[in-house]
Amino acid sequence: MPDLLEVATEPNRRALLRLLAEGEKTVTELSGHFPVSRSAVSQHLLLLSEVGLVTARKDGRNRYYRLDGAGMVRLREQFEAFWTTELDLLVADAGRLGPQSSQGNI
Amino acid sequence: MPDLLEVATEPNRRALLRLLAEGEKTVTELSGHFPVSRSAVSQHLLLLSEVGLVTARKDGRNRYYRLDGAGMVRLREQFEAFWTTELDLLVADAGRLGPQSSQGNI
DNA sequence: AAAATACGTTAGTCGTCACTAACGCATTAA
DNA sequence: TTAATGCGTTAGTGACGACTAACGTATTTT
Q1: Tell me, what DSSP letter sits at residue A67?
Q2: What is the full DSSP assignment across B6-64?
Q3: Nearest Cα to B35, choosing from B55, B12, B53?
Q4: CB-based contact B93:B48 (threshold 8 Å)
Q5: H or E element that contains B4
Q6: How far apart are CA B65 and CA B48, in angstroms?
Q7: What's the pTM?
Q8: A51-73: per-residue pLDDT in tens?
Q9: Alpha-carbon gap, residue A43 to B56, rounded angstroms
């Protein structure tokens, strides 16, 4: 099974998720915002649904995709799990010291 | 140029970043924690350094890799930029309602 | 000193992933 | 009803990415 964070991070899929945050949309609606074909968008959506980040509802000949809240919660959790306290400290230091040195020990 | 979030999210590289949060380490030290070869680890590190998430220091025949604070700040920023207010609201709803419905509109 | 060992990077291969092209199906028009 | 149009998914292809194998270089050891 594909990795949740990896699936969510691909730039086009990131954009799709953000568009879907506005509400449910069809494949064609979504693909209007992209340089790539409907087909490509459709496959990205299928992948997103495979990992549980979106769900689909069929209506006539349209398929309305929407975000899956539970999946998005899992996504947030996985990111927070990665972003440990150590990283927080590190980033805090970097922010305080400016963009030169990177770690506590010189 | 490769995408920062994508580079950072690959599972092995995620693990590398977390290990490096403990402090600087050599390629061989790092590869001890992985099933894959030193070579693979080395290439992951090269990629990470290419996007500015790590830097290297040479000492004898060892190369000590460490996190780059500035890069990590940029990483955090990019994630926050993706995670819009809408997504926060969505996730808050999902957490409150439980794992069934996903969006405000039924 | 030469030989052996250890560290890290480059060369080459295989699989996967993102994409366009072709398709099936549903719906509208004639 | 049949033809035509539109929506979304599957088939096929090219490129990219992760990995092992081979290499160069530096350091020990004898």
Answers
A1: E
A2: HHHHSHHHHHHHHHHTT--EEHHHHHTTSSS-HHHHHHHHHHHHHTTSEEEEEETTEEE
A3: B12
A4: no
A5: helix B4-9
A6: 10
A7: 0.87
A8: 999 999 999 999 999 999 999 99
A9: 39
Give the contacts of A67 (CB within 8 A, at least 6 positions apart). Answer: A17, A20, A21, A53, A54, B87, B90, B102, B103
| Alpha-carbon span B73 to A66, nearest angstrom | 31
Q: Decide: B7 and B53 in contact? Cβ < 8 Å.
A: yes
Residue B73 in contact with partner chain A when CB distance is under 8 A: yes
Of all residues in chain A, the one with the smallest CA distance to B100 is: A70
pLDDT in tens, A69-104: 999 999 999 999 999 877 887 787 776 666 554 443
Q: Do residue A69 and residue B22 have CB atoms under 8 angstroms apart?
A: no
Q: Which residues contact A85 (CB under 8 A, 6 or more apart)?
A: none
Best residue of A83, A105, A106 to probe chain B, by most B CBs closer than 10 Å: A83
- What are the C-alpha distances in Å from B51 to residues A66, A84, A94? 33, 20, 17
User: pLDDT tens, position by position, for chain B (106 residues)?
Assistant: 689 999 999 999 999 999 999 999 999 999 999 999 999 999 999 999 999 999 999 998 999 999 999 999 999 999 999 998 778 877 877 766 665 444 433 3
What the block records as the tokens of B41 is: 């680890």
